[in-house]
Design goal:
By secondary structure, this protein is mainly beta. The chain contains no helices and six strands.
Length: 97
């Protein structure tokens, strides 16, 4: 999953993400996304987060992506792309909340 830092004004975001099924969740992965600074050529506007969960859905269901930040100014990070590898998938629906 790729998480983008679209904060304005630009600031560093610390994020924690996990992926889960109805019965279990992956380990939480933490990342720090520093906004890109064109003057110093440091930082990035996005970070790839490698989340892994081996699960079995006995009936059609959902996988949930949960992310949080401890940023107090209300800035947010957004998941901009996802990749799912599955042995068998009945249907895949993208849902944004």
């Amino acid at each position: 999953m790729t998480v983008g830092n679209f904060s304005f004004p630009r600031e560093t975001l610390a994020i924690n993400c996990a992926i889960g099924s109805p019965t279990e969740f992956s380990l939480t992965y933490s990342a720090r996304i520093d906004p890109f600074n064109s003057e110093t050529a440091q930082g990035a506007s996005a970070s790839t987060i490698p989340l892994t969960l081996v699960t079995h859905l006995t009936s059609p269901g959902f996988l949930t992506l949960q992310c949080q930040t401890n940023n107090l100014s209300g800035q947010m990070a957004f998941a901009t792309s996802r990749h799912l590898t599955a042995v068998k998938v009945g249907s895949a629906i993208r849902s944004e909340i």
